[in-house]
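Page 47, continued from p. 46.
Same chain as before, 435 aa.
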Amino acid sequence: TSAMTQGSTSRIMWLAQSAPLFGLLCYVAYQWRNLLSVLLLIGALYSFIKNFVTLLTDTKKVPRRAFFLLVFFDLWIGLVKLSQCILLDLSYSRALLDGMMMLNRTCSTTRVTVHKINKDVEVYMYKPETVSNKGCVVYIHGGAWCYLSARGFSGTVSYMAHYLEMVVVSVEYRLAPEHPFPAGLIDCYSAVQWVLDNAEMLGVDKEGVFVAGDSAGGNLSAAVSLLYRDRQGAPLEAAEEGAGSEGRPGLAGQILLYPVVQGYSNSHFSMLDNSSFFPPPKLVPETISLYASGSDRFFKWFGDPLKINKVPKFWKTVVEATTREESELDTIPEVKKLAELAEDATFEEVMGNSYILPLHAEDVTNLPPAYVQVASADTLRDEGEWYARYLEQSGNTVVFSEVAHLHGFMMNYKRNMLARNELVKIKQFIGQHTK
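Result:
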């Protein structure tokens, strides 16, 4: 029996370890489907025509080259079809990506508990064996607002809690396009409120609550910071801003890891210099559109200054360049009620909403201290730096860090020394802003 169990375990481990390779193979097959399919088809047809007489007269002498090329072409088409099913179907691609993320094993010394804070949202609380800081980090995972999950990030966040030596709460927020803006933002804001309401049960200090996130999670973390400031810490259920915020301190800080924060320019330096790296420049406008509206209807407008009527304030004050004169269109009020952005919102409303694109905010004063990190080989590098400068120019405390690495490098602390070094800096930043 033990031999059978050992054999089953080894097969399962082999499948788990093969998942990233299979996913990469599917990705390559899908990305190069047109060119390679044409080349294989030409090769198969050439070999078939060249040996046509032999095929007609004596089938036993079919050249192996022609036979194998035809079979390989058939298999290639099958793989392309399979990769289209996996990569274009959200349920398949989410399952595949989550499976790849879960190869990062959780830290054995970190205890994990799951809490359902309302009908839509679960949070995972990670408590390390050694707690040296009574604060709490509310972590919001990345994944272009459409992919990955808090469960898939369990390995990443458990080691984050271990190295930071403090409680980390990871949010399982609703994903786009099924649940577009403001669903994800509401869920993350509600998670912060839940931590504040249950600080005693969690064993954390209310005055030491930070929001943190990577990529799209960095966007949501910045948006939560803006929303918390605008509502003066009041729960979303409160009728007026500030109502019900008695006894709620401000957020201790925001930790933004290679965040996506703007949709104005998709042709600036890092987008061009790092265009061969992840995320692809064409993917960014599409995912912003899916998050903002639940569809790709704004895909062609995001990132093209010539199609945008109003130049954002950050472009004039931080980038110090404008690509066209500002139009006379009515400006959109910056602090918008979440319910006002309906599914039929205009592109101008989306561009003017700082909760979707924090770098487009007209007012970024009085925000919590920020730790903004970017990766050098990342298409989002420039906008992260712009946001850090924008916050600093507005009188906020900012720590900026640029790391010579790729987008997403902070996902594996156990094996990545640069990621662990960044956690040391983040731990210092947290220590400076907690009692």
